[in-house]
Amino acid sequence: MLGLGEVLAVGKNSKFQPGQFVAYLHYGAFSEYVVVDDGEGILVPSQDAAFMSIALSGLTASLAFEKEGDLKPGKNVLVTAAAGGAGQFAVQIAKLVGCHVIGTFFRPEKAEFLTSLGCDRTVNYREEKLDEVLKKEYPKGVDVVYEGVGKEMFDAALKNIAEFDRIIVLGQIAAYGDNDSKKQFSELLTASEVSIPLALLVKSASLRGFWLTSYMDDFPRHIQKLSELYEQGKIQVNTDKGGTAENGPFVGLEKIVDALGHMYARKNVGKVIVELH
Q1: Per-residue pLDDT reduced to its tens digit, 43-68
Q2: Single pTM value for the model
Q3: 67 contacts 58 by C-beta, under 8 angstroms
Q4: Cα(144)–Cα(125) distance, rounded to whole angstroms?
Q5: Is 245 domain-assigned?
Q6: Is residue 224 part of a domain?
Q7: Is residue 157 a contact partner of residue 142, using CB atoms and an 8 Å limit?
Q8: Helix (H) / strand (E) containing 262
């Protein structure tokens, strides 16, 4: 889990100092106090919750595109779950490069948010079939796909990938909420109804997996870059603290279950944050 807080005490030879703010990846982040190793902490400018979103979700989008995306001006980029914690960054990073961005979403209230981020085309996949939209409006295909949903979203991307281009797979949130980890893994391997080898073969296209912790040496550089863009007003960071949620706001340990339920129901706009006091 990802957490962010003020450093209260440090061990001998620590790179951090009391009073600094650190984002960290560590089990037990839903705690009032936590002990983490130096290597698990990332220095951030303040306790603004936006920096926690940057330190995980922004980092994921930024690194995925740098390592696997080959973004260039004018490319068509498809971002699934575009209004989510990482999706919001993927949309904005692609727009900063000069790409045309298509963003998918689940609930109608997210359309305006995605437009504000710069999406050129938004697709509510409860009202429109993504596969049909892409075939009709992007007959040459999409160049880069930032895909973390799975199932029908992955199939639509696979059917409509452009020649020589790529799909970046970051997860399968369609399986979130299922407590059976073996079932989740099985679904991930058998999710597509399309022949993956054949679909890639005939387009000379590629499917690229992205796992964030494979690139830990690059974390500081990307977090610094994204933090600067945020402070300069060049990107926006939306954090969902449950202000409009039925069981919100998400303040205190007892609200963790409500926050996770909010996310699993795909109601969140931006990164879900639980504040602990």
Answers
A1: 888 888 899 889 889 999 999 999 99
A2: 0.86
A3: no
A4: 19
A5: no
A6: no
A7: yes
A8: helix 256-264
The amino acid sitting at 51 is F
- Asked if 112 and 202 sit in the same domain, the reply is yes
As to burial, measured by CB atoms within 10 angstroms (0-12 exposed, 13-18 middle, 19+ buried), residue 82 is buried
End position of a domain, from candidates 188, 213, 238:
213
pLDDT in tens, 231-269: 999 999 988 888 888 888 998 888 889 988 888 887 888
More confident residue, 92 or 44: 92
Residue 80: CB atoms within 10 A of its CB come to 27
The CB density around residue 109, as the number of other CB atoms within 10 Å, is: 12
Q: Is 167 found in the same domain as 75?
A: yes
d(CA 91, CA 198): 29
Give the confidence band of 2 by pLDDT, cuts at 50, 70, 90.
confident
Domain of residue 152, residue span: 56-213
pLDDT bin (cut points 50, 70, 90) of residue 104 is: very high
What pairs with residue 159 in β-bridges?
none
Nearest to 98, CA basis, from 138, 40, 36, 143: 143
Question: Is the separation of the CB atoms in 23 and 55 below 8 Å?
Answer: yes
Please give the Cα distance from 228 to 29 (Å, whole number). 25
